[in-house]
Design a protein that fits this description.
By secondary structure, this protein is of the alpha+beta class. It contains three helices and eight strands, in the order αββαβββββαβ. The chain has one domain: Cyclophilin-like (Cyclophilin, Beta Barrel). It starts with 34 loop residues before the first helix and ends with a strand.
């Protein structure tokens, strides 16, 4: 993945501690947004399938990711499960290589962790091109967990070796603004973070 004006001659009750402080991630969508307004917000994203589309909030702007539910059904289901748990909120883009990709999804911010659930590979025919969202993994094909990367450019040498589960359809310019790492491995000092991720159907 963030005052009120007192009228002359009127009285305003003292404002206490915000009741929304420390509110659960799942409840934030209910705050101050009517059903009609929420419907308009959802419609404004112009996605094909709101249930299989994500809103990724970054420091510079909003990014829309449309997921490939038919090509990588188990990965898409797991990503949505983690998103709805708030797992990705605040996680760092720990590995970012200019001209290649930005990687995130490690709860430790080091690239060494995950959610604890490995996924069987769902390699498919979708190419690794600019805007592609694909799963990171170890040398073992069935080792993907929660970490994923977004391609800055076309990376055809990755095709058929990593599970492509979606693509950025809006806001790629904000992905381009993610802070780059240094050196061949792309490790980032004081990395950018995911502000929040939401399934658009839930907004």
């Amino acid at each position: 993945m963030t005052e009120s004006k007192k009228l002359k001659g009127s009285t305003t009750p003292k404002i206490g501690d915000a009741k929304t402080k420390s509110i659960k991630n799942d409840d934030t969508k209910k705050l101050g947004v009517s059903a009609t307004r929420a419907k308009k917000i959802k419609h404004s994203y112009k996605v094909k399938d709101a249930e299989n589309s994500l809103l990724l909030k970054l420091k510079d702007g909003d990014v829309i990711i449309e997921m490939y539910g038919d090509d990588a059904p188990n990965h898409v289901a797991r990503i949505k499960e983690l998103v709805r748990q708030g797992f990705y909120n605040g996680l760092k883009f720990h590995r970012v290589i200019d001209g290649f990709m930005a990687q995130t999804g490690c709860p430790y911010g080091t690239g060494t962790g995950g959610s604890g659930k490995k996924l069987k590979a769902e390699f498919n025919r979708n190419p690794h091109k600019r805007g592609t969202v694909s799963m990171a993994r170890s040398m073992m094909p069935d080792s993907a967990d929660s970490q994923f990367f977004i391609c800055f450019a076309d990376c055809p040498w990755l095709d058929g070796q990593y599970t492509v589960w979606g693509e950025v359809t809006s806001g790629m310019e904000y992905v381009d603004m993610i802070k780059r790492g240094e050196g061949a491995n792309g490790e980032v000092s004081t990395p950018d973070e995911i502000i929040s991720m939401s399934v658009i159907a839930d907004i």
